[in-house]
Every structure is written in structure tokens, then in C-alpha cells.
# Entry
Amino acid sequence: SKEYVENSFNASYGLLALGLNKGDKVATITNNRPEWNFLDMGLAQAGIIHVPLFTNLSPEGYAAIFNHAEVKAVFVANKALHQTIQSILDTAKTVVNVFTFDEVDGARNWKEVLELGKQKESDFKETISQNIIATQPTDPVTLIYTSGTTGNSKGVLLSHQNLVTNAIACANVFKL
# Structure
């Protein structure tokens, strides 16, 4: 639990130190992994909208989503996805930063964001605390895209309230 909290806050501070702001969009392209969860919470605390994407989209599909959502940073799982994203950066006009979760030669790693967050905690701690306090149930937290099986992927902006309502409904169904 302590590691989760520490990584989530360091991600928040690091994202703000990179120049991202409340309302900006950050995409992740990875299968399930702990780092995704740390980053997801870090984004939510900073008021940055998470755009989680499938790992099997075409390069053109990623570019279309990045441009539609105005994604400013992308976090990918591995070397193959990093290469895919690098190949479309000239058409994904708003993407400024690309990071990997796995160690990839020549690529920026997500641990850089955590380390930057550790270094800049004092600069952004109050901002994150105030943001958490000010967050409203109707504030956007994630932008999910359909698989695009019947055409281009379509985005759906979800609020904190949407996610909580879904969690409560599932808990009742599965008797949690």
C-alpha cells in the first residue's frame, strides 16, 4: 500500500513537472501491470485525463486517437509499441513525450517521471492536495475509445461518478 501511494503521488508530481496540466490527456498502451495502476491514480490526482488504449491498434488508429483526444504524452509497455508510436509521431501533432514501462534502449522510461516527481514534490505537493480536495464527482477522469470494429474508434469521456457507480453496481452483482 505504501509503495502504491508513493508511486502514485510521485507520478502526479512528475507529470506536472513535465508541464502537463489539469484537463490534458495522457495515453497508456499496455497490458495489465502495476505501473498502469500507479500512473492511473497519478493522472487522476493531477486532474489529467487518462486515455487507456488497446495494444493491438494499427499505427493509423493510434494517430487518429492521439489527434482526436489531443494526447500530450504516451506511456507504452515495450519496445514494439515504442517503435509503433515513434513511427507516427510526425502525424500525432500534440504528442510531446513518449515513455516505456519496460526498459528499452534509446527510449525514455516511466521511472524518469517518478524520479522527477521525487525531486519536485515540494513544488507540486500543495497543487496536488488542492486538486484532490477540489475534484468533483462530475469531473472527467478517463477517455475510453471503442475498438472501432464498425469504423473509427469513438471516444467516451467518463467522470469519477461514472466509475464509482459502475464499481458499486458490479459489487452488488458479484456480492462483494
About this structure: The radius of gyration is 16 Å.
